[in-house]
Structures are given as C-alpha cells and as structure tokens.
Write a structure and sequence with these properties.
single chain, 294 residues, alpha+beta, eight-stranded mixed β-sheet, three-stranded antiparallel β-sheet, 9 helices, 38% helix, 20% strand, globular
Length: 294
C-alpha cells in the first residue's frame, strides 16, 4: 500500500487551477470534426476507407485490408482514439438515406434499447445481429413504417454494418464475443465529460449528432485534476466546456455513420490516458433523436 501525503488546502487549490487551466490552452487539439492533428506521443488516428461498395458480408480483399488497417491503428500505443470515416462511411449514409428508415424512426414514440451478446466470428456475427431482431424491437409496437420495404432494407443495411464492427472489434481485442447495444435516444445519454472504464469502446451514430471528443491535452488536464479531488475535476471539466463553447477547434465531433474507437482505462498500458468525451445534447421535446451503436 502506498501513502500519499495530502496537499495543504491553499496549495491544493492553486494546483487545481493550474491543471484545469491547461484545458483552455491545450496545444494539441484534434480540430473540427473533419480534421485531426498529432501532438507529442499521443495520436488521434482518422482513417478513410476509400471503396464505397460494402453491400454484403463478403468484402473484396483490398476493402477488407483497408478496414482492418483502420482498426489495427488502435493497437499502436500512441493512438488513444481513432475515427473511421471516408468514402465507405459516406456511402453507408447515402444508402440509409435512400431508405425510409430515418422517417420511420422519427415517428417512434419514446426510446428503445436493444442489447445482446454477439459472437465475433466471421460466420457468426451477422447471424447473431439478425437474431437481435432490430426490426421487431424498434417497430414491434408501432404501425408507421413497420411494413415498409424501404425500412426493411435500411434495417438490413444496419445489420450488416453492425456485424462488420463486431467482427473487427473481436479481432482487435481478441474477444470471442462482444456486448452490443443499439439505442434510439430522445434525451442526452451522457451529458458530462467522462472516460470509459473498459478496454475498448466502439461507437457509431447512424442518425443524429455524433460523440464529442476532447483533445488529448484537455483530456490529460482533466485526468490530472481528478487526482486532486472532485472540485479540481469539476473545475477542469467546466473550463473544457467553456473552451469548446468559444473555440470550435477545442473538440472533435463524429459524423453520422463514422466509427469512433476509444481505448478506455482498462486497455493494457492506457491507464490514465483514456480520452475524455461526452454525448451530444438531444432535446426530445424539440423532436431531436439519435440512433446509435455501442
């Protein structure tokens, strides 16, 4: 057991302010949603998948290699968060837009949360995702759009993409299964800045605003403040929120259908380095909603 002498109260307050101030003057911001940068030994990887044709579970070898390369970047110790966007993800957005799924989901009252353990094997993932019955779970109690062919095509597109993510998650983490949750949200899920206490989190927002991710410097400032106590941590988070409100480059937002990969506190060697993030605001009273995978 290690003992750490507490800081005198005056020094504690001064240190808290000094640590939290780093949030405002973070030198290695990752930019706006479509821009990334590197700073020091920390890397925010943004991979662009160039081939837009991913219509069935059997992908061409070169497409599969590019997809795998994006996930492999997470294994680099310097990478703490990776965004996967590019032509393939834009094509997915376009295919979903061509269905009536967005309009049908908007008509569903309340929230829906579907959760299941899905095997990550190449021959098992898609079958397990289909067994979740996204169509029945989302539209089982409503008539609007439930029998629309376009809606069913949209659900099938989601199922294939979720299976892609699960397979790659299993390969990256060496896991035989993953807990998958698909949620239709009409309120903010996690409004406070936080880190994930898991090895790796994969998130996709199919419809609606995406996850906000702070820069590495801002995340590190909040992590250091956490060690000084709740007051220091809350101050650091407050300063981060102020910086984001006044400076669009202080954080990065994922777009619709982008894949966000975040190494959590329990990824080997990543303790104290997990990136701080939060969910976007969702005003259900104004008709806002999100459909996300995590």
């Amino acid at each position: 057991r290690h003992f750490r002498a507490p800081l005198p109260s005056a020094r504690r307050a001064m240190t808290a302010v000094a640590v939290a101030a780093a949030v405002v003057s973070a030198p290695d911001r990752i930019g706006t949603r479509r821009r990334g940068s590197r700073g020091g030994a920390t890397r925010h990887a943004r991979a662009s998948l160039s081939d837009p044709t991913r219509h069935d579970p059997g992908f061409a070898a070169d497409d599969d290699a590019r997809w795998d390369a994006a996930w492999t970047s997470v294994r680099d110790a310097s990478t703490r968060v990776a965004f996967i966007d590019g032509d393939a993800r834009r094509d997915l957005r376009a295919r979903l837009t061509r269905t009536n799924l967005r309009e049908a989901l908007a008509a569903i009252p309340g929230e829906v949360h579907l959760r299941a353990e899905v095997r990550t094997g190449a021959s098992e993932a898609l079958g397990d995702v289909r067994a979740m019955d996204l169509h029945g779970g989302l539209f089982g109690h409503v008539d609007a759009g439930a029998r629309d062919d376009g809606v069913r095509r949209g659900i099938e597109t989601l199922e294939r993409d979720i299976a892609d993510v699960v397979r790659s998650f299993g390969k990256t983490c060496g896991e035989d299964s993953a807990v998958v949750q698909v949620s239709l949200l009409r309120k903010t899920l996690c409004s406070k800045y936080h880190v994930d206490w898991v090895p790796l989190r994969a998130m996709v927002t199919y419809f609606g605003d995406g996850t906000e991710v702070l820069s590495a410097a801002a995340s590190d400032a909040i992590t250091r403040a956490r060690a000084l106590g709740p007051f220091a941590e809350d101050l650091a988070k407050s300063l981060a929120a102020t910086a984001v409100a006044s400076d669009a480059t202080a954080s990065s937002f994922s777009g619709e259908c982008d894949v966000v990969l975040m190494k959590g506190e329990r990824w080997p060697g990543n303790a104290g380095r997990a990136i701080v993030h939060r969910s976007p605001d969702v005003d259900g009273d104004a008709g806002e909603w999100r459909l996300g995978l995590r």
